[in-house]
Queue: 4 jobs
Job 1
Amino acid sequence: MTNNNTIRELKLHSPAGVEPAVFTWPNIERQKTKQDAIFIAGDEIVRTIRLVFEDYPELYQQNVNLDQCDIHSYNKMKELCDKFNKIIDTHVKLNRGTETFSARLEQRATAKLFRHILAQVYSRAVTNPDKLRDYEPFSPSVYGETSPDLIDSILKLINLTEDQTFIDLGSGVGNVVLHVAALSNCKHVYGIEHEETPATYACAMGDEFRFWMRWYGKHHSEFQLEQGDFLSHPKMDERIKEADVIFANNYVFGSTVNHELKVKFMNMKDGAKIISSREFCSESFRLNDRTKNDLGAVMHVTKPEECFGKVSWSDKSVQYYLHVIDHSKLAHYYEKVHQLHTKGSKTK
């Protein structure tokens, strides 16, 4: 007889032919008391197998019976894993080394598969989500997450290309960075987080993400998650200067932090974009002699419909703002001023 407290493991072999994924079979009583459980019993295993078959429809076999599987029975789940592993082992043995097999490893995950991967990553890396809620209310340390649906919409709007870079200022546990790295064909994604708890979890998130992307055989952009202060980091000024897109949940950053960011953004290149939950310059900004040294003098700001969506720190949807750097705006202003002065001099 098996002791209820015995930790048992189930394994799923990788369709990419790498090391297997190990699933710890939960103690049912303990699981019922877990507040932030994402998966119940064998639910994660069934979802994982289903998504592999969606990615490799030629591997699906009727006798797997995913819809009829008892996710609460260890023995039934063990049978399911054994059937799946035999199918995968045969697939890898027959196809490894072929052009088709190698080409699959260059493909990116679908949005649906990535959502599942992110849930797997989060459930393993963030071992105590309550710690993320331990902050001083209304301080720059407030932790919040942007919904995947909103990030999907933002990615469609900014349309990153393979030579571009993306920076997340205040990246938390790294959800946005991993989202962009998984689904966007960009050169590099960088996230920096000041607070120790989310930054520690972000490191674990990165490791888990790399494992699962490798297990599914999916390509992702290079990324880095780092703990630090984006205002004082020695490499930050250069990174901001070269960035193509900067993302900032700056709603609770405070006026001092936002002002210092505005100073840094003045040196961004033309065409670079900033997406933020609070605008860095008003849509009604007017360029004149008094405002010519403000960030608004070198950028355009809009409120795209695509940038309106759910966030974790509010029960209401939040509007994000799109800023586009354009130094010619200021150059045209000076040219106009010069023409007016020249015209004025001639009439005297």
Job 2
Amino acid sequence: LYASDRDKESMSRGWFVSAMPDLNQQNSFMANYITQNSLWWIETLGLAGIRQDTYPYPDKYFMAAWARRIMREYPEFSIVGEEWSYNPLLVGYWQQGAKNRDGYQSNLKSSMDFPLQRILMEALTEKEDWDSGLITLYEALANDFHYASPQDLLLFADNHDMDRVYTQLGEDPVLTKMAMAFVLLAPRIPQVYYGTEILMENSRKPDSHGLIRSDFSGGWESDKVNAFSGSGLTREQNDMQQFMRDLLHFRKGESAIHRGKTKHFAPEDGIYVLFRYERERKVVLILNKNEQPVELDLSRFREMALEGKEFRELVSGEEFVWDAKLKLDNKGVLILTNMKQE
């Protein structure tokens, strides 16, 4: 609204870095070449999707035409655009269906949810207070009213350009499990970076892309650790790998996560509770930051109509009946599902 012409010019026509020339998409021949080149690669390799880097930097009207042409040729194709901004207003601007003041329509179905990613890391590591900790995660997810289709945003805990999630969370495996559970159960398209399941880190040299993109352990004769077979993994690595295996297998077949509704409750006493549900099926995510045993008052969730229902915890397999209170013995995550009634 207030940007200068100089800044607009620098943004859309300036070089990203000195080693990467900026192609002139306003030239009709260049624009046609780029579009045809994309279509050729999609057809030749049978691609299912494109992660389009630095989405706001090219000419935005070309990008809208490019996305429209690809989706016209391949209606089931997936394009996710990288808008590395922690401002949800900017991320929302680039999503198809956004009601932008300038009338711009991007034809881009999915954008990367950097705002929620950063808040997730902060919420798990900050001290609990009225304006910090899990309340910020609750408020960040509440921003979904702004997005045209929040369920089509891509959420992640880390990627190839930022510190590994295990490093961001101070090499705390419990917090890492909590983060990944939220990523995989939230109303989003999840992205999991390779090696998260074995707690890969770059703590000795933060922001080092060489370490962030290190080889996965295993596959070479010289590797002392083989994450494919489990040989050489620590107890914590094995535990995290099994946690991710269980959670991903569960998510794969859970329609309440794929197509269900979402309801969450404001955090109280260091505990955040989120429900995904479809008809009678309920999935309950509980994030608990308390180091000491606490009791969760289940009467707060009466509107979910769960009284007397049998539930099973995903990882431990423990079963219980939804009653007045639920004892939480340790800091961590619980994933509860209601059991089918005979």
Job 3
Amino acid sequence: MRELDYGGAVLFTISAVLILIGVVYTTTLPSSDPHVIGTLVPGFVLLVVFALYETFMPLKQPLTPTRVFRRGHGRELTAPFIAAAVVTANYYGINVVWPTMINVFFTDATTDIHHAVVLTLPANLGLLFGAVLLSFFGTKIGHWRWTLTGSVAIMVLFGALLALGNPNRFGMMTAFVFLGQVGFGWAQYLSIAYVQFGTDQVELGIAGGLAGVARFAGGAIAISVYTTVLTNSQSKSAAELIPAAATAAGLSPDAVPALIAAMPLGADALAKVPGITSEIIAAAFAAFKQTYVVGLRTTALTSLAFGIVGIIACFCCQDISPKMNKKIEVFLENDVNAEKNKFH
């Protein structure tokens, strides 16, 4: 227990928390606000300190041994680690955009709950189908680096194409979500295998832990970025589109703040807005949907930035075909082959 890297764990945890808090702050505060700067700057500084600490401190059990990241000039573990993080990041992109589309574009207060549940199936079935395809055809196809690159490219492409979404494109969005999740289902499990093949047999614990860090860190960063982008872009668009639509339909500019405040509260609150009519309400809610068209388009295109990094990382990975064999590294000690074990 004394040899564990407590210092590295503390540095990484504090830096990650500060960075995520700073990103989330930007949903309500301008990027120049002291609260944003005061969390992001120390967070990134501590992250650099963590990297230096892991590199130069004489640790017996470092949290992230730098030697494993240097294996194969970074192609054995570092590139797969980045790819695994990006795969999870793009998964969260789809899972921010699609549920929001369901809630804003394709359902309303009168929608049957069973229909709303059915709308969640394309994403889940796509993920399952992709994983099943990998299980049945991964070994037969081989060429693991190229199938990883291809599956990530499919996920990234159809995740970015969700930027075309609007209330009139239900079928198109359903197909894109399904296909994007098929790519994720294949890429997720293969990327994990890639990370775990990135170290020696005796360091599988480190590889497994890093595979988890890649997924959870990638997911945490991505969900913070996506929600920030969606909130900021939708709010900015709402400040422009809703007043313009309401006044064009006949509402007095003085009543616009009351309309915006009443929209989330329902029909009773809307009825109290001075000069309100059914035409104004319809125009305002049409504009409201359009603000999400803008916000979701920006969010989906943001996922493309993550995805390009992931595709480049996949190209940099080594081919793991020589390792995908029936060789058993460790036998049970009560097995007839126990004497073959290097360590007992």
Job 4
Amino acid sequence: MKAISIDRDIRIMEICGTHTSSIMKSGIKGVLPSNVKLVTGPGCPVCVTPQGYIDGAIELSKRTEVIITTFGDMINVPGTYSSLKLQKALGNDIRVIYSPLQALKIALDNPSKEIVFLGIGFETTAPVTALAIHKASIQKTKNFSVFCTLKTMPGIIKHLVNSEDLRLDGILCPGHVSTIIGERSFKFIPEQLKIPAVIAGFEEKDVVSAIFLLIDMITKKENKLENIYKRFVQYDGNNKAKEIIRTVFKSCSANWRGLGNIENSGLKIRNEYESFDAEKKFNIKVEEKYLSKGCLCESILRGNKTPEDCSFFGKQCTPSTPIGVCMVSREGSCGIHYKYHEFRL
């Protein structure tokens, strides 16, 4: 890639953890001009799940009448004093599943137990979570509920671009989320935030093309949205998926680990379906918690620090002995950097 004629650093944020993985795996950073900085955003759903939620799920798992069902990455996330992995080893009934519809089947197969699905993720997992709740309502499955902490992307992007301590020149939009909410949902980036954005896939050529387009628009001072992932991302997205989300959930403020409470960046279960809201059903108290002293996950999620800036990275904190949540998930920036980093400590 040719050097560009601009006399300052250009900061481009990739939001999606899969984009971060592609960038690190392919060595894209090594071919960029020295003044083009790629900033990793909060695109890992496990990583942005607040500590208080993790502790709430752990406490819920200790109840003998409860079966916890969850995506695999959540098992290893360290809580304040324990983890779901440790609680499972101690005999609590915690099951890894691939879809909340599996949790609904477990509820039907175990009528004497309360089945709780840990509903984390972004707009990509929201439709099937909504579908599970809707089906449970139709079937009158009273022993199924969702402990919901779903997040949405437009609100957090607005928050990041408007942050005084984080100067961003362009956004590489989250590809998976874009397939659900569509190209239209990101038009606010050039129109309101006045910076360019690109929707792209995850192959190296997709990511390189997106970065090139962003650099070109930044250099020309053109604020536009380009969709180069049209093979999967339609202008209006997936209307059926959006409809089931609107039916079951409503927009709310949400607590993002390291970022705080962000307006219109989450989804909560509507009152019509509140009997399937585990937080209300079990009176779960989600308290604000903080990370281990010295862990930089909160700053890394904000884009202010890189994993290599953390003194724990690759030493005390590794995928087998994670201190911070960013090392746990396959979409977490620390785990990705550790996997593809040239230097092993």
